[in-house]
Amino acid sequence: MAFSSxxxxxxxxxxxxxTPLVDVMLVLLVAFxxxxxxLNNAVHVNLPRTVATAPxxxxxxxxVSVDAKGVVYLDKRxxxxxxxxxxxSALKANNPDVxxxxxxxxxxxxxxxxxxxxxxxxxxxxxxxVLTANNG
Length: 136
Description:
This protein has about 140 residues and is α/β, with parallel strands linked by helices. It has a domain at about 60-130: Nucleotidyltransferase, domain 5 (2-Layer Sandwich). It has 3 helices and 5 strands; from the N terminus they run H-E-E-E-H-E-H-E. It has a 5-stranded mixed beta sheet, with no helix packed on it. Strand 4 (about 100-105), helix 3 and strand 5 (about 125-130) form a beta-alpha-beta unit. Helix 2 runs parallel beside helix 3 (about 110-120). The longest helix has 17 residues, at about 20-35. It is elongated. The mean pLDDT is about 80. One of its GO terms (cellular component) is plasma membrane. Involved in the TonB-dependent energy-dependent transport of various receptor-bound substrates. This is Biopolymer transporter ExbD. It is found in: Cell inner membrane; Cell membrane.
């Protein structure tokens, strides 16, 4: 449908009215501003202050390390990755509550770390801490 201003002029009047578009955008903006604070799922809790206590009779954790070359260490002693499962099982037999700290160089392939974690799981050790560097 074309409208013309005069009968002698055959130019088509094609102006887009953007007012409804602006209205819709403003309504959406207000809706997002109102709902944005509701998207935060954190529960704010003021924790009580207590005196620091030391854990009772806690033995030091065993450290399992993998260096950049892929060499596995059990408490700073080089160990073969294929034999680590038997050594961890022996540790678990001697101390059922043994805790492990696992640290690996960032350049170590994921497969090596995954095999090491599988060996830890097969040995039945459930207390595992994965150590990382602090960026602070």
